[in-house]
Design goal:
The chain has 349 residues and is an alpha/beta fold. Helices cover 31% and strands 16% of the residues. The protein has helices spanning 35-43, 73-88, 146-162, 177-182, 197-200, 202-215, 238-250, 268-275, 288-296, 307-311, 315-321; strands spanning 7-9, 12-14, 18-20, 49-55, 93-97, 115-116, 125-128, 131-134, 139-140, 167-171, 220-224, 256-260, 280-283, 302-305. Bound molecules: flavin mononucleotide.
Length: 349
């Protein structure tokens, strides 16, 4: 099996196992995907699968400047433009559903407090239209409002299909809302949404089940970062937490499970593989040699590339040829216009 062999992923047959990892680029003012966003993704349509930047399934999940949403009619039209541009070039695209939970600020929420499992502030600051501000203390969700929030993942999945997107990835990684529920230091609830691992996983699994009920398991993927500490996540029992979650996801026959391995001090890929026999995407610092090795050994079915794809619109071709890669410009990762977004050159034809 090679990185460049086709692979069946849920409802789709992909041309290769090279995936574009989800990357927030903060270039969607008004939360409605635009022509520049469509051009950026279309440039990268040679990926086997594109996973879009984190996209909020609900207005309460807006957490960063100028990130897209998928909860109203204008956004559906915006995403239709993106999906159409990618499909016209033979690509496939899943939208990543990211509710940021406490990693937000009232400035993004019409003055309302961000929502979270518990009223525990994330340390640090967030970049707002008025510069850096502390996150502040979120509002703990009432148990009675959680089912409606979970249902927004189903609604967003339905809207994704309406827009012509191929499926959705539920973002359970990197300390956003589902990851906040999973983490004992952020989730101190004593009701059925906190405490035991079964209770802490209930939000994530509920969101996944809502998306599955809306569009079918073969169009739903999930992203996790087991043991990851980004956004002040601390789980002293991370291997047990993620063994349970992987086992529960395995029962659902999803399109894929996508793991961002942040090397937390245990063997993340081996742990997940032991509990998850379905299609597995691995990510985190890959180059071609490591990608080929992990696919050949059966550890991974596909490999996602983040920064290399950001800086190289024709990454699969460059990997296949062993060509040199463009240098990423970190200063233009988050926000701005075409510079550092759609102006990275492809190889000369
Ligand atoms: C600019 C940037 C934005 C990112 N935004 C997201 C995001 O919205 N959702 C997500 O799950 N991961 C996000 N990530 C993490 C990447 O998907 C990926 O896990 C990380 O870059 C490691 O992969 P790499 O070593 O191939 O770059 C982001 C990374 C970068 C560099």
């Amino acid at each position: 099996m090679s990185l460049f062999s086709p692979v069946r992923v849920g409802a789709l047959t992909l041309k290769s196992r090279v995936v574009m990892a989800p990357m927030t680029r903060n270039r969607t003012p008004g939360q409605v995907p635009n022509a520049l966003n469509a051009e950026y993704y279309a440039q990268r349509a040679s990926a086997g699968l594109i996973v879009t930047e984190g996209t909020t399934p609900d207005a309460s999940g807006r957490g960063y400047i100028d990130i897209p949403g998928l909860y109203n009619a204008a956004q559906v039209e915006g995403w239709r433009q993106v999906a159409g541009a990618v499909h016209a070039k033979g690509g496939h695209i899943f939208v990543q559903l990211m509710h940021t939970g406490r990693i937000s600020h009232p400035d993004f929420l019409d003055g309302a407090a961000p929502v979270a499992p518990s009223a525990i502030a994330a340390p640090g600051e967030i970049y707002t239209h008025e510069g850096m501000k502390p996150h502040g203390t979120p509002r703990a969700l009432e148990a009675a409002e959680i089912p409606a929030l979970i249902a927004t993942y189903g609604r967003a999945a339905t809207l994704a299909r309406e827009a012509g997107l191929d499926g959705v990835e539920v973002h359970g990684a990197n300390g956003y809302l589902p990851g906040q529920f999973l983490a004992p230091n952020v989730n101190q609830r004593t009701d059925e949404w906190g405490g035991s691992v079964e209770n802490r996983a209930r939000f994530l699994l509920g969101a996944v089940d809502a998306a599955v009920a809306a569009i079918g398991a073969d169009r739903v993927g999930v992203r996790l970062s087991p043991g990851g500490v980004f956004n002040d996540i601390h789980d002293p029992d991370a291997p047990a937490t993620y063994a349970y979650v992987a086992g529960e996801l395995a029962k659902r026959n999803l399109a894929y499970l996508h793991i961002f391995d942040t090397k937390p001090g245990f063997d993340v890929a081996a742990l997940i593989r032991a509990h998850y026999k379905g299609t597995l995407i691995l990510n985190g610092g890959y180059d071609r040699a490591r990608a080929e090795a992990d696919i050949a050994s059966g550890l991974a079915d596909l490999i996602a590339f983040g920064v290399p794809f950001l800086a190289n619109p024709d990454l699969p071709e460059r990997l296949a040829q062993g060509a040199a890669l463009n240098t990423p410009d970190q200063a233009s990762f988050y926000g701005g216009g075409a510079k550092g977004y759609t102006d990275y050159p492809a190889l000369a034809a």
